[in-house]
């Protein structure tokens, strides 16, 4: 990310500006630069959704997606549970925005995926600095595994097939939650079966491949900067990748993405870590960062949806 600087914009002093992400003004107001509109849950053809509260203190919520045909079935047919963390650089976007709502309606319908999605709305920086988002996502996973979650989860979720997934910063969250799942027990003995990391956001002070030499900054400033273990999974203080708490992982990268090489670096690091699970790499040709969220009806986005559905269902 580019450096923080101070500027004057519309007679309001900008105290923090991270280009393309966020502006924070001296008066405390915040301008998020890439948010898409919020939309309500819906029943659209074969997919239904609803919003739930996970915790009131701190406030954590989620949007659930389920194939409509399953809603009135309380019998034996159980489906995998995908706990999903959205991207947005930890600064913007939401589980309730138009982009992600459209994406999951397409994901479940176009990929013909009988999957229950729990799209988590974690708290955003800079109002709530990191590492709050990591704690929120872990609490959301614990809630899913508990006896106090939503009836859709309890009636239709297969707790033998719990998956984590996320794009960009959300993939970073997936990695860190998977590490925690390897170190701490979830309620009712639930285990995470697998995880997908789509165009994962990681950094280190040493550029990888085609990365820019400068501009590696994380806000809010974490101890150790970009070599904080939350941002650099191979930092000296980072937990061993061999302790990842799941059995299979797929890392998805995009050919034209500026952090494409970082995703390959992570895949190779997991593969060589001594971790006893199965890891694979998927690359979308001719695509840029978060293409699957921004253009979900494109040919390559639909291919990725079907690949992820296959990863979860088989």
From TrEMBL:
What SUPFAM superfamilies does the entry give? alpha/beta-Hydrolases
Per its UniProt entry, which superkingdom is the organism in? Answer: Eukaryota
Q: Name one GO molecular function term.
A: hydrolase activity
| Pfam families xref list | Abhydrolase_3 (PF07859)
Domain Alpha/beta hydrolase fold-3 per the UniProt entry, residue ranges:
82-291
**What family does the Swiss-Prot or TrEMBL record give for this protein?**
Belongs to the 'GDXG' lipolytic enzyme family.
Q: What is this protein called?
A: Alpha/beta hydrolase fold-3 domain-containing protein
Organism from which the protein derives? Arachis hypogaea (Peanut)
Question: Upper lineage ranks?
Answer: Eukaryota, Viridiplantae, Streptophyta, Embryophyta, Tracheophyta
